[in-house]
Amino acid sequence: TEHPEAETVCANAIEHRSVDHFHGLRIAIENRNRAEQESARLREELRLYKLQLENAQKEIFRAQAIVNQVAFQWNEAEAEAVRARTKARKVQEEKLVMLAREEGRRMGYQE
Questions:
Q1: Residue by residue, what is the 3-state secondary structure of the chain?
Q2: 52-89: buried (b, 16+ CB within 10 Å) or exposed (e) per residue?
Q3: Cα 93 from chain centroid?
Q4: What pLDDT was estimated at residue 66?
């Protein structure tokens, strides 16, 4: 208590440093809170992107299944068309043979 002015100056300096430290601490806490909020927002955004990706992949798989089914049906239709053309040719050949036989018989009866 011999130097009350010095003690006051010292106390004021300590108080000023304490206020500065608390101010810095408050800023650090606010920055941490903002970082945590940003992190939470980014995690949610990532979750939504993952859902969109999953849905897109499901759509791609569904579309690929349809493409595969259509390709299978196309191949089956082509094979059926080949069989039908082959049968039609065979029937046409049999008809020509039958007509030729009838013509031959007619010619044989005429002679």
A1: CCCHHHHHHHHHHHHHHHHHHHHHHHHHHHHHHHHHHHHHHHHHHHHHHHHHHHHHHHHHHHHHHHHHHHHHHHHHHHHHHHHHHHHHHHHHHHHHHHHHHHHHHHHHHHC
A2: eeeeeeeeeeeeeeeeeeeeeeeeeeeeeeeeeeeeee
A3: 54
A4: 98
> How many whole angstroms separate alpha carbon 19 and alpha carbon 28?
14
Residue with the two structure tokens 């897109």:
56
Residue that has been written with the tokens 């606010």 in this structure: 30
CA separation for the pair 77, 70 (Å, rounded): 10
Averaged over successive runs of 10 residues, the pLDDT of the chain (111 residues) comes to 78 89 96 98 98 98 98 98 98 95 85 68
Report the distance separating Cα 104 and Cα 111, nearest Å.
Answer: 11
Contact 104, 98 (CB under 8 A): no
